[in-house]
Amino acid sequence: MDWDDLRIFLAVARNESLSGAGRRLGLDASTVGRRIARLEQAVGAVLFAKTPQGYILTTEGGRLVAPAEAAEKAAAAAFEATWRDEGISGQLRIGAPDGCANYLLPQIAHRMSERHPGLEIQIVALPRVVNLSKREADMAIAVSPPETGRLTVQRLSEYHLHLAAHDDYLRSHPPIARLADLRHHRMIGYIPDMIFDRELDYLSETGVEAAAITSNSVSVQMQAIRAGAGLGIVHDFAIPFAPGVRKVLPDEIALTRNFWLLRHADDRASRRMTLLADELGREIRQEIALLEAKPD
């Protein structure tokens, strides 16, 4: 049995589609399909059932997952046994909420790429929790620690958020001297039923009941604020990227949150992944401190 076929099998099992597995592996869907057919012929069993929801493991396919994952770990161990200290190479896929993905990770990825020319960094920005069990990413940044799952969880850094608006909006609307004044202003925030983590329910802490403009994306909210559409809660580390946006009522509305790094429990023995996790953690702490120190 070919390890490369098992690698493709795991990608289909985790993505539940040939095209999704192909994108993850850099192969076209037809090639993935042929390799799965070859593996099924080799083991003498149908491994996937094609349903309207995607490719679902059959009973026989489910039995192959554990041996395939064991082969995956063995292949990773073999790679590390021949790895040299002159640089970390290969692929690193990082899942993150879009605020972190847009305002922190691009410059961090730049610095890490400079240090490790052989490293390919992929940033997955999702308005939801990244599913590590399906290998959507090698590691993920979250705004709260998970309560279930076989994961290694590490607190990375706290960060801060404030109510903010663009100067153009503030000049053309009534002054804001206290919290009660907010009821006369247009608010920007999350779509309520798309808040995937309670830590993102920012507006509830301001006393505002509803927002006039909402999005499931932090970046879209920031662009609306930057366009002068209203006020919203923003990350302090994002303000330097939005000239003209400044904090409003900073003493009355000040939020603190944390970023957490999530890794597969099985990756704890991986020296490569541990080095990358440590480097990513240091970079995030430094970048937050740098950006939050800039005046708005």
TrEMBL record:
<keyword id="KW-0804">Transcription</keyword>
<dbReference type="InterPro" id="IPR005119">
    <property type="entry name" value="LysR_subst-bd"/>
</dbReference>
<protein>
    <submittedName>
        <fullName>LysR family transcriptional regulator</fullName>
    </submittedName>
</protein>
<keyword id="KW-0805">Transcription regulation</keyword>
<feature type="domain" description="HTH lysR-type">
    <location>
        <begin position="1"/>
        <end position="58"/>
    </location>
</feature>
<comment type="similarity">
    <text>Belongs to the LysR transcriptional regulatory family.</text>
</comment>
<dbReference type="GO" id="GO:0003700">
    <property type="term" value="F:DNA-binding transcription factor activity"/>
</dbReference>
<dbReference type="GO" id="GO:0003677">
    <property type="term" value="F:DNA binding"/>
</dbReference>
<dbReference type="Pfam" id="PF03466">
    <property type="entry name" value="LysR_substrate"/>
</dbReference>
<dbReference type="InterPro" id="IPR050176">
    <property type="entry name" value="LTTR"/>
</dbReference>
<dbReference type="InterPro" id="IPR036390">
    <property type="entry name" value="WH_DNA-bd_sf"/>
</dbReference>
<dbReference type="Pfam" id="PF00126">
    <property type="entry name" value="HTH_1"/>
</dbReference>
<dbReference type="InterPro" id="IPR000847">
    <property type="entry name" value="LysR_HTH_N"/>
</dbReference>
<dbReference type="InterPro" id="IPR036388">
    <property type="entry name" value="WH-like_DNA-bd_sf"/>
</dbReference>
<keyword id="KW-0238">DNA-binding</keyword>
